[in-house]
Write a structure and sequence with these properties.
It is a single chain. The protein has a single domain, classed as Rossmann fold (3-Layer(aba) Sandwich). The protein is built from 12 helices and 7 strands. The chain is globular, with a radius of gyration of 18 Å. It is an alpha/beta fold. Strand 2, helix 6 and strand 3 form a beta-alpha-beta unit. It has a 7-stranded mixed sheet, sandwiched between helices. It is an enzyme of class 2 (transferase). Its EC number is 2.1.1.6.
Length: about 280
């Protein structure tokens, strides 16, 4: 693993680090930037402006350059026609990855974001980056959005999915995608924040054997498993959403996954990692 470049570090993460107005501040920062004319139509320059805000103004919970490079390399190899991200925040990841999908010959990048204010920021910055023809922002809870996209035929298969939303929903949303046959052999998953703050239930699921998953289905295991996830992260959105609801899908335990951790860094320099999981078959 490469070392972290401290010169590129974001401002430290505060006790309250999102949904406190900084997302709108970012929008004003970018649109009042002295290099705005150069930024227009350039995903690279929009990302640079977002990074500048994160380094000089306030921390932003973006994937960042280091972990972002892991996923863009993955996109170059997978060449997804359709990529989905769960959790868009201010649009950093969908601008970075949407641009990579376009460069790889892909057709559509769906960014699913529950918070309508964040979604508005995403759409504004995506438009500024010139990616509106590739990126489609979907507002609403991730499970309901996935089901709606599938039922309308807008989403028929997920070639590559980036998970970076509410941590207990990683596993439940993946199971829903399995049940709807959106994730099948050939699908690839990239899950952020599996070290910081960590997501033991998700790692257990994607690293389990088919037999282990079948046993859990027999036990009726479903819903949001928060074991091992920090209480702070479980209650992260409590001010906005009083009660979290999860998909109750049991998924498809017969899918075979190969999964590995790629170590990297948060944009602040704190160690983190991305779990890369490939669906390689079905065991009858």
């Amino acid at each position: 693993m490469d070392s972290f470049d401290e010169a590129k570090a974001y401002a430290p993460q505060e006790e309250t680090f999102f949904d406190d107005g900084r997302e709108i501040e970012l929008l004003h920062f970018v649109y009042s930037h002295p290099n705005l004319d150069k930024i227009r139509g350039s995903p690279k320059d929009v990302l640079a402006a977002i990074d500048e805000f994160g380094r000089t103004k306030k921390y932003l919970m973006n994937v960042g350059e280091d972990k972002g490079r892991i996923v863009t390399d993955l996109i170059s190899g997978v060449k997804p026609k359709t990529m989905v991200e769960l959790g868009g925040y201010v649009g950093y990841s969908c601008i970075l990855f949407g641009d990579a999908v376009r460069a790889a010959g892909g057709q559509r990048y769906f960014s699913l974001e529950r918070n309508p204010e964040f979604a508005a920021v995403i759409m504004s910055l995506v438009d500024l980056a010139g990616l509106s023809g590739v990126v489609k922002v979907i507002v609403g809870s991730s499970d309901e959005s996935i089901a709606r996209l599938q039922s309308t035929g807008a989403l028929k298969h997920i070639d590559l999915m980036f998970l970076d939303h509410y941590k207990p929903a990683y596993t439940t949303d993946l199971k829903l995608c399995e049940e709807l046959e959106l994730v099948t052999p050939g699908s690839v998953l990239a899950a952020d924040n599996v070290i910081k703050p960590g997501n033991p239930p998700y790692l257990e699921y994607v690293r389990s054997t088919v037999q282990q998953k079948r046993e859990n289905v027999k036990k009726g295991k479903k819903g949001g498993n928060v074991d091992g996830i920090a209480e702070r992260n479980v209650k992260q959105y409590a001010n906005r959403y009083k009660e979290e609801k999860f998909s109750q899908s049991l998924g498809n335990p017969n899918l075979v996954y190969e999964s590995k951790l790629v170590n990297s860094f948060e944009p602040t320099g704190v160690p983190d990692g991305v779990e890369i999981t490939r669906c390689v078959g079905v065991e009858e």
